[in-house]
Design brief:
11 helices; alpha/beta; seven-stranded parallel β-sheet; three-stranded mixed β-sheet; binds nicotinamide-adenine-dinucleotide; binds uridine-diphosphate-N-acetylglucosamine; 14 strands
């Protein structure tokens, strides 16, 4: 079976390429490298000892994307390609709508024309907005608070409409909680451009001395210690969920939606402590005002993925921190080293 991985040079995509290749799948990667480095794919080849084609193509370029489908016969697509920075999406909404929505519309039209009907799509727990209770189940009401989240919700709607109109499609929507960590080899990991927005890359850069201090966004939330609680998931576990989705759902027309999380919620301060323990480094922090748009707590009920995809998270917080640190200390400047 051959899979096209859009956005395969990125953080989650590169880890998924490793799991697909190790699982015996053939792959090709399409990425315009707007938020990634080609070196990630060289490392994927090193880790797996396998090779594959890479297409430096923008999904906004319809003809070039169509050519990729003419060049190789794919059985399924895993669609990671998209822009993902919440703050930037508020400043540049048109960029986000154009890239994420138009890119996906092009991809879906090209898939249909070329007879490829299996797709796994990267959605996010952000589509639950501020959940009414916890843990979050897939049938909770959906809403968003920023353009990035809106692109995810709109694409989910587009995929549902597409299946209604053409029931040859098999659509699996994976709603990720908070992916962190890295491959155990320390060769691939998250390589944010500039100052990280997300908690774990920020903590990692404080631990290695690239950033002076972590700002903890609020300590008056109604949570165990007042700081925000999230469901952190090891990126390798998340990647395996994609392999399971392809394995179980390809050729099964329908729309399937799954939470991909561990079901455990950890606070910001718990994450700081766990990371200090794993790295042996101090992570200095200061309490700051809440970040606008943040919710107090968010964690998954991931039982549907367990029942239907035969998937559960295998790694705990210790391994997430260990592997995140291993990547950071071996590559203090990411792929630029
Ligand atoms: P990433 O930025 O590392 O990877 C995305 C990749 O898509 C990048 O390599 C980028 O160059 C590529 N890309 C973007 N626009 C493109 C276009 N028009 N054409 C071709 N390639 C394009 O991000 P990631 O963390 O690996 O996330 C992958 C997907 O998962 C994204 O869709 C993201 O929104 C979603 N997601 C991520 C998280 C998270 O915390 N990382 C959480 C929920 C959902
Ligand atoms: C953020 C996005 C979300 C996106 C997800 C994955 C926002 C509002 N939400 O989620 O839409 O799907 O990333 O990309 O940006 N924190 C600090 N200090 C920091 C950074 C974070 O205290 O420097 C806290 C946050 O307040 C939060 C927790 O750490 O409580 C996790 O934050 P983050 O890693 O940014 O993820 P989310 O906010 O869950």
């Amino acid at each position: 079976m051959k899979i096209l991985v859009t956005g395969g040079a990125g953080f989650i995509g590169s880890h998924t390429c490793v799991e697909l290749l190790n699982g015996g799948y053939e792959i090709a990667v399409l990425d315009n490298l707007c938020n990634s480095n080609i070196k990630s794919l060289e490392r994927v080849k090193e880790i797996t000892g396998k090779t594959f084609n890479f297409y430096n193509v923008d999904l906004l370029d319809y003809e070039a994307t169509d050519k990729v489908f003419k060049n190789e016969k794919f059985d399924a697509v895993i669609h990671f390609a998209g822009l993902k920075a919440v703050g930037e999406s508020v400043e540049k909404p048109l960029l986000y709508y154009h890239n994420n929505i138009t890119g996906t519309l092009n991809l879906l039209d090209i898939m249909r024309k070329n007879g490829v009907f299996n797709i796994v799509f990267s959605s996010s727990a952000t589509v639950y907005g501020s959940p009414k209770s916890l843990p979050i189940k897939e049938d909770f009401p959906l809403s968003t608070t920023n353009p990035y989240g809106s692109t995810k919700l709109m694409i989910e709607g587009i995929l549902n409409d597409l299946y209604k109109a053409d029931n040859r499609f098999s659509v699996t929507i994976l709603r990720y909680f908070n992916p962190i960590g890295a491959h155990e080899s320390g060769k691939i990991g998250e390589d944010p451009k500039g100052i990280p927005n997300n908690l774990m890359p920020y903590i990692q850069q404080v631990a290695i001395g690239k950033l002076p201090i972590l700002s903890v966004f609020g300590n008056k939330y109604p949570t165990k210690d007042g700081t925000g609680v999230r469901d952190y998931i090891h990126v390798v576990d998340l990647s395996v969920a994609h392999v399971k989705a392809v394995e179980k759902k390809s050729g099964q027309p329908g729309v399937y939606v799954y939470n991909v999380g561990t079901g455990n919620g950890y606070s910001v301060l718990e994450m700081v402590k766990a990371f200090e323990k794993a790295s042996g480094k101090e992570v200095k922090y200061k309490i700051c005002p809440n970040r606008p748009g943040d919710i107090a707590a968010c964690y998954a009920d991931a039982s549907k993925a367990e029942e239907e995809l035969d998937w559960t998270a295998k790694f705990g917080l210790e391994e997430m921190c260990r592997d995140g640190w291993n990547w950071q200390k071996n590559n203090p400047n990411g792929y630029e080293d």
